[in-house]
Write a structure and sequence with these properties.
Blueprint lengths: L5 H10 L8 H8 L9 H10 L4 E5 L2 E5 L2 H13 L3 H23 L4 H24 L4 H10 L1 H6 L3 H13 L6 H16 L3 H18 L2 H17 L3 H18 L4 H16 L3 H18 L3 H16 L3 H17 L3 H17 L3 H14 L11 H18 L1 H12 L3 H8 L39
Antiparallel strand pairs: 1-2
Helix pairs in contact: 1-3, 1-4, 2-5, 5-6, 5-7, 6-7, 7-9, 7-10, 9-10, 10-11, 10-12, 11-12, 12-13, 12-14, 13-14, 14-15, 14-16, 15-16, 16-17, 16-18, 17-18, 18-19, 18-20, 19-20, 19-21, 19-22, 20-21
Length: 464
């Protein structure tokens, strides 16, 4: 530190506000000014790098820099000593508020993969910004905005529990009842729905909708109604789900809203129709989602549309098409680390596998899914419709394997990690089976096959 120039010491202290890795753009915005021009940051950064104060690495999100924790702590002490820590933390907060805003907008684009990688890389800094907002007097509304803007990451990238942690903390604060709080409320309701927590979901969505209607906030009202319809869907109230989802989609159209959430509303409505026996209507909605996704380069919502199309194919006894659609769905969901999309795909692939005549492999996939559900929430949401395909698959497999063999295969699947389970589910329909699980013959004569799952029966799957 004593061998550093004044500019190097200054940058060292200011860089200490970053948690984990950071990039050059962030360093230039946060650390410039008051003795260090933005154009000089790169050169000074290079000197710190040459002296091993910093390290540099190539990542999926581009070139990143970081400090060892001890080096960072030393810089933080100097930043406190010169009395500039508060200002730098606010600049850090502002940068990551802007980053979250950009990422939310760019999620509905061909750059979804880049957005997911960027937020993954920036997660320590985003957590730091959230903590600052939720503990700094007067910043509650900023924390609500930041937690709500990251909805796509909490939901689409496998961070439901962490998202709920930040969202609950943010809405507990006495911030202004403005758009930021309403957004945090509907996102909290959405996360709670996916976790199968009906009481928490109803509470958040009811508060959001009441306040949105009172203040004339058409956007928040549409989102609250949409997610209330989603809750009705996963709690088996199909009539109410259809009414609410159609109304929410009309509201979105009126205000000109089009993004991944709107497309998910169409997919959820399609699932509602499928459960009520209107498969052509469900297909029409999902084919429309498919076209919009292709036009905008959207992949995450596309995966759920493919899921519904696979459900329809399975109901029509087209197992090969159902398998192809589900494997594409699973590939997308796994790429984004979307735990819900992943486990739903594996669950329905298990039924496809049982229908194709391989009960041992079907039971193994069910075991793999059982290991994934605790990371999402309540298994199959405790819903009769969600449990239907699962129970049907289990019944088929038990009848053909016997209880003891079925349980053995389920236990083997439950020992698989997520990567291994997904690799197995994405593998060819026929081939070598690891773990010593011996498959039954995959193909059986037609008279030995059970009827395909029917959308008019009590069971079924949905997208959340």
């Amino acid at each position: 530190h004593e061998l550093c120039t004044p500019e190097e010491r200054l940058l060292w202290s200011r860089l200490s506000v970053f948690a984990g890795q950071f990039d050059l753009e962030a360093a230039e915005y946060v650390c410039s000014g008051d003795g260090l021009h933005a154009d000089d940051v790169l050169d000074v950064l290079g000197e710190l790098l040459a002296q091993s104060v910093l390290s540099r690495t190539e990542t999926a999100a581009g070139v990143r820099y970081r400090m060892l924790d001890t080096v960072r702590a030393y810089g933080a002490d100097w930043l406190e000593a010169i009395g500039d820590a508060g200002r730098l933390r606010r600049r850090h907060r502002d940068w990551y508020m802007g980053l979250a805003t950009w990422c939310e907008l760019d999620w509905f684009s061909p750059r979804q993969g880049e957005v997911a990688a960027r937020v993954d890389a920036e997660l320590p800094n985003l957590r730091c910004a959230l903590e600052h907002c939720l503990t700094e007097p007067g910043d509650a509304h900023l924390g609500q905005y930041l937690a709500g803007s990251l909805w796509f990451y909490w939901v689409g990238c496998g961070r439901l529990s962490e998202g709920r942690h930040w969202l609950e903390r943010s809405v507990e604060l006495d911030g202004d009842r403005d758009q930021s709080r309403l957004k945090a409320l509907w996102v909290l309701g959405y996360v709670a729905v996916l976790q199968g927590d009906t009481v928490a979901a109803l509470s958040a969505l009811h508060e959001c909708r009441e306040e949105a209607e009172r203040t004339g906030n058409a956007t928040a009202a549409a989102y609250a109604e949409h997610r209330t319809g989603c809750l009705a869907l996963v709690t088996d109230d199909m009539v109410r789900a259809e009414t609410l989802l159609r109304s929410a989609l009309d509201r979105y159209h009126e205000i000109g809203e089009l993004n991944s959430n709107v497309l998910m509303g169409q997919v959820e409505l399609a699932m509602t129709l499928a459960f009520q026996g209107d498969l052509p209507g469900a297909v029409m909605l999902c084919e429309d989602v498919r076209r919009v996704c292709e036009d905008h380069g959207e992949r995450w919502a596309l995966a759920y549309a493919l899921y519904v199309l696979a459900y329809e194919a399975l109901a029509g006894r087209d197992s090969p098409r159902a398998r192809d659609l589900l494997q594409e769905c699973l590939g997308i969901a796994h790429t984004f680390h979307d735990l819900l999309g992943t486990v739903l795909s594996v669950e329905l692939l298990a039924l496809v596998t049982a229908e194709e005549g391989d009960p041992a492999e079907a039971a193994l996939l069910q075991g793999a899914a059982s290991r994934m559900w605790p990371s999402v929430g309540l298994p199959l949401f405790g819903s009769a419709h969600y449990n239907g395909p699962h129970e049907r698959c289990a019944s088929l497999a038990r009848r053909r394997l016997g209880d003891e063999r079925y349980e053995e295969c389920v236990r083997a699947g439950a020992r698989l990690g997520q990567e291994a389970a997904v690799a197995r589910a994405l593998g060819p329909a026929d081939g070598a089976r690891p773990l010593g699980v011996l498959p039954s013959p995959r193909r059986r004569p037609p008279d030995m096959r059970e009827p395909a799952v029917s959308p008019t029966s009590k069971g079924g799957e949905t997208t959340g």
